[in-house]
Automatic annotation (TrEMBL):
This is Large ribosomal subunit protein bL9. Gene3D superfamilies: Ribosomal protein L9, C-terminal domain, Ribosomal protein L9, N-terminal domain. GO terms for biological process: translation. Pfam families: Ribosomal_L9_C, Ribosomal_L9_N. HAMAP family: Ribosomal_bL9.
Amino acid sequence: MKLILTAAVDKLGAPGDIVEVKNGYGRNYLLPRGLAIPATRGAEKEIEEIKRAQAAREIRDLDHAHEVREQLDGLTDVTVPVKTSANGKLFGSVKAGDLADAVKKAGGPTLDKRNIELPKGLVKKTGNYQVVVKLHPEVSGKVNFSVVAQ
């Protein structure tokens, strides 16, 4: 079965790759989970969109990773507005995607939410926090942000 991957799959490929897999694996695992789409002529356009989106998020090399780290260090006003109770406790928690959006709104670079390492206890109260962002295997940056009530 010929499929086009829409997400990275371990030991198989990256988004946009055309792969040949056994029928059962494709039909029972990849397709239902949205990890792949059937390879058709119209799907080629989707491949191009996936690769463009991936290229926008990608850190190209070590020098680019240092540039992005400098941009992150220059950010001062990263705030994540959330709904809270009267005592400052959040309804839910701040997720990596929320933080990536807040960095973008503050004038920072586009970050991949999978590279943001949130603290183990999650962010469940208002206040100031710091997270580590893995930009490259050798380079990581830090983002200071504040969680405020809406």
